[in-house]
Write a structure and sequence with these properties.
Length: 78
C-alpha cells in the first residue's frame, strides 16, 4: 500500500490528511482514492498537482509501499 498525503482542499474533501491506498502506479492509487473519497475529492484532484516522493508525478509512475503520493491543490490567498 502506498502512502497518500492530502493537502488543503484535498484534505478537507477526503476528511483525512494521510492514508494508504493499494495500487502499483500513481494513477491506480489516485483512482482508489477517488472511489474512497467521492466526487468532491475527484473535482479537487482534477485541478491539483500530483507529486511522487517530492517530484512531479505521471499517472504511469510505478509505486510501492515505501512511496508517497501527494495531492497539492492550487492555493489562493491575498
Amino acid at each position: 500500500m502506498t502512502k497518500l498525503l492530502l493537502l488543503g482542499p484535498a484534505r478537507e474533501a477526503a476528511g483525512v490528511s494521510h492514508d494508504v491506498v493499494d495500487g502499483n502506479t500513481v494513477g491506480v492509487v489516485l483512482e482508489g482514492a477517488v472511489k474512497r473519497y467521492g466526487t468532491d475529492f475527484e473535482r479537487i484532484l482534477a485541478v491539483s498537482q500530483i507529486w511522487l516522493n517530492g517530484n512531479a508525478a505521471d499517472p504511469l509512475d510505478q509505486v510501492g509501499p515505501d512511496d508517497e503520493v501527494a495531492v497539492l491543490p492550487p492555493i489562493s490567498g491575498g
